[in-house]
Amino acid sequence: MGRLKRLDGIRGLLAVYVMLGHALPLTTAPRLIQSLFRHGEAGVDLFFALSGLVIAFSLQRFGGRFRPFIIARARRLFPVYLLVLAASIALGLCGDPLRSLPWAGLQARDIISATLPAPLWQHIIAHITLLHGVIPQAILPYAYVTLLGPAWSLSTEWQFYLIIGLAAPRHLGRFALIILAIGAAWHMLPYGAEFSRAFFPDAAPYFALGLASAARLHGERKFLLPCILGACAIGLLTGPEKALPPLIWGGIMLAQAKPWGGILEHRSLQYLGAVSYPLYLVNEPVQRAMALLIGPIAHGDAALFSTLFLPTSIALSLTLAAGLHHGIEIPCMAAPKNLSFPVIAPPMRQ
User: Tell me, what DSSP letter sits at residue 223?
Assistant: First the structure.
């Protein structure tokens, strides 16, 4: 369990990394600094690997039973998602924040959309049911990021939860190889572009890494290295950068076994890990709200905007994440056992 505790510190660092990756493109931060935080998708890939590991243990705690496993996931995290989703939709009605930020480029536009999508009701239903990741692009274009950008990974996680919950694998290492094979087959198919990156097979190699890591902690050591090498090879089919997360994950697992990895158990990192899920969800809506508020005040002064925007958006994101954790997550976890929520699962919390 001590090693799993260190993963909370890694989760916290990844959440901060993703938050900065969303915030910096709206500012005039030096390109070198921005380039260091441009790999938020790789950070999410590592979140998937973390999820594969901790969810394997979570399912085991429920004896492999599907219903209590899924309800436990929903009880812990669905309330935060629904609240942040509603706030994000409301902010989308307030206009395009990038109109006041002429220096913001295409990367900023990839993060912040100009308007809410149409037909809005279809996108809302897709997000509430977490089906937006399985809808082909031709049916509902860009549905996976239209209302709440970070929620694309929730849909991917939900698909993973269904698969592992229904399969209830007895041998994690073998199941990891099956998931890896699904990812390999998908990335070699010619019609993969019809679906978004939120479709489970696209992220399957990273979940396989987590499952193989869980198997390793159970004494099955022979599966992790093949999964790392396989995930790297699959990543190369997309681009060189996609081969890095498996290597980084291998380093993370190595750190778990080293004494110096104890720094991940520092109180501040552990707390960031505790609030990482709401921080992951809320940072983008907060940045949109701050851009809407500060942009007109700055009157086109990019330096003034950056000076005001970056610290306030970071501070507010952390504050709201802590409030959601203590005010929503923890009370819902302590709710009566007969209270259940719709079967929807989150991206990165245990």
Answer: T
